[in-house]
Amino acid sequence: NDDLLKFINSILNYAKIESQGVQLHLQSRDVNVILKEVVRKHEFLARVKKIKVSCELEPLFPIAMDPELIRQVLSNLVENAIKYSSDETEIKISSSEKEGFIILKVKDQGPGISSDDLPNIFMKFFRSQNAKSSPIKGSGLGLYLAQYFTELHKGKIEVESTVGVGSTFTVALPLAT
Ligand code: ADP
After folding, report:
1. Does this model's pTM top 0.85?
2. To test ligand 1's pocket by mutation, which of 6, 84, 120 has the most ligand atoms within 8 angstroms of CB?
3. For labelling alongside 126, which of 70, 137, 140, 144 has CA 20 to 30 A away?
C-alpha cells in the first residue's frame, strides 16, 4: 500500500508540475535543519537495513529557498541511497560552503550506476535495467524532480558513481538567488 501510495503521489506531483509549472515560495532557511529533518525521517528505513547514516554539517548561513522543494530533493537522494544500498553499508551526508554555493553531498556504498545508465538517470521515468529487474520499487521520477527543483533554485545536481563501489550525489545551491 505504502509503495503504491508513493508511486501515485509522485505521478500526481509530476502531472501537476507538467501542467502548471512550479512557483517558488522562497523563505530564508538553514539547509542543515532541513537535512537533519530528512535524515530523521529516514532513520527507520536505514535501521531496518542496518545502514549507518553519518552527517558532517558545516555551520551555514540561511539562504532563500523553497523549503518544501529542497526537502523533496534531499529526501529523494537519501531515500535512494538507502533503497539501493545493501545491508550494513554506510551513507555519508555532508554540507559545506564553497565559492558562493552551498554544497550538499549524499554518498553511498551501493551498487553504483553503470556508465551507460549515468547520462539517463535524471530523465523522467528512467529506471536502470538492474532497478527494474530488482524488487526495489520506484517510479523513475525522483531524480527528474530533484533536478527540476534544484535548477529552479539556479542550482546544479551531479552524480559520480563507480559500479560496485557506490554513488555520490552533489547538490550545489547558490548563496544568492
Ligand atoms: P526510482 O524511483 O527508480 O528510484 P529515481 O529517478 O530516483 O527513480 O532514480 C532513477 C534511477 O537511478 C533508479 O532507478 C536507479 O537505477 C538509479 N539510482 C538512483 N539513485 C541511485 C543510487 N543511490 N544508487 C544506485 N542507483 C541509483
Report:
1. yes
2. 84
3. 70
